[in-house]
Amino acid sequence: MNSTTKLLVAGVSLSLACGTDTLPADPPVAVKGGLEIYHAYAPASPAPDVASLYFTIANAGQLPDTLTAVRTSAGMAMLHDMVMEGGLSKMQHVPTIAIAAGDTLRLVPGSYHVMLSQLARPLEVGNTISVTLQFARIGELAFDAIVLTYTEVVERLDPEQHQQ
After folding, report:
1. 141 with 133: CB under 8 angstroms?
2. Is 131 helix (H, G, I), strand (E, B) or coil?
């Protein structure tokens, strides 16, 4: 299996992981009001003015919340989901994403993610971008996301897919 096929399979596998109740093993990058953010990564820009952003939101609290907006230091940010239309997978803007109490939501390739556009400059490996999430209940939650290669992002989001 070539590396492109492996990445495609990994992306499809990762998209099935949303909604899991398993908390990540790494420490959170931000915590507020029962919400914990883990695995905040942005792959290096595939084009000069666009990129993506992935992270995990664990709601360890007793109340649900809703992600209503994302801001970054990199450029314009918009919540997206991947949907099947006419046998093809395409991105679709979503205005909000609900996170039930006790649930974990993974924004990963092939599923929910943040699309970054109108970048001030391309994202380069080794840099970080500042991210601020806006939630309906707890308000703002800020953290930094690490810029890695796409392969490194996929490996960190689901290391079991890449063990030989």
Report:
1. yes
2. strand
Q: Per the CATH hierarchy, to which homologous superfamily does domain 3-162 belong?
A: PCu(A)C copper chaperone (2.60.40.1890)
Phi, psi for 91 (deg, rounded to 5): -80, 145
- Summarize pLDDT for 20-39 with one digit per residue, the tens: 444 456 789 999 999 999 99
In this structure, the chain runs to a length of 164
Calculate the dihedral angle through the C-alpha atoms of 137, 157, 50, 78, rounding to the nearest 10 degrees: -20
Tell me the whole-structure pTM to 2 decimals.
Answer: 0.81
CA 2/CA 127 separation, integer angstroms: 28
Q: Return the bridge partners of 83, or none.
A: 90
Q: What tens digit of pLDDT does each residue of 82-125 get?
A: 888 888 888 899 999 999 999 999 999 989 999 999 999 999 99
| Residues 6 or more apart whose Cβ sits within 8 Å of residue 100 | 59, 64
